[in-house]
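Tutorial handout. Part one gives the primary structure; part two gives the three-dimensional structure as tokens.
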Amino acid sequence: MSRHGTPQAGHVARKRFGQHFLTDSAIIGAIVREIDPRPGQALVEIGPGLMALTQPLLERCGALTVIELDRDLAARLRARAGLQVVEADVLTVDFGALADAAAPKPLRVVGNLPYNISSPILFHLLPWAGRVADQHFMLQKEVVDRMVATPGGKDYGRLSVMLQWRYHMESVLDVPPEAFDPPPRVDSAIVRMLPWPQPAAVDPAVLEALVQSAFSQRRKLLRHSLGRWLEARGYTGHFDLQRRAEEVPVAAYTTLAAELGPAGKDSDTPPT
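Part two.
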């Protein structure tokens, strides 16, 4: 097996796109079982690459939308029946428009995300969580550990709070480097993300700013970071600042965010 892509496909993995192609058939089968695609569902795959995951998904559901930035791969994908190809950077894709096209069915979003931009992609998808049934992503295991982390540990941080506010998440499958070609230098994992039907009603921008301030000096007590931020906003309520950011549960952050400002509606389009 060439480290630069499968000989059969003849495609060279491009570092600038963060391409690592999944080649282990047993792992692919396990991922598809976790996703459990069904005919008629509105599946969207981010980064289909050489169709390692796309093909078995297509066999089970009959049709899906794929988002591919690499123009050479996008051209190959268009030749396959059952695929609607969106040739674009996923960070520019309007998932609200995809949801409109699929309505009334909610989207099911899957993908082997480029590890170099995985967090921006997760944040890009947040505004449309209300129109998504579930998300299954392959990510660097270290990122998945941070996503599902509970308060009190070193993995718990901004990513944990912002995503757990909107999703129930679990790590469902570990994937070793040798399952890819070329192998990444890190372990990977599959995370399942299920949007909460009734998330805490907060303004996402307020929560984001609050959490960013709290974790800006995570080794210090919150009075040194979040305390000053709250004082600048004129906050006069009670919030225990004699603890570190990693000790505060998600519900406490969202309660504080709700006190600070009017809740933004769960919009289908990102805030401007």
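Part three, for discussion. The chain has a mean pLDDT of 89. The beta strands are 21-22, 42-46, 64-68, 83-87, 107-112, 132-140, 167-175, 180-181, 188-195.
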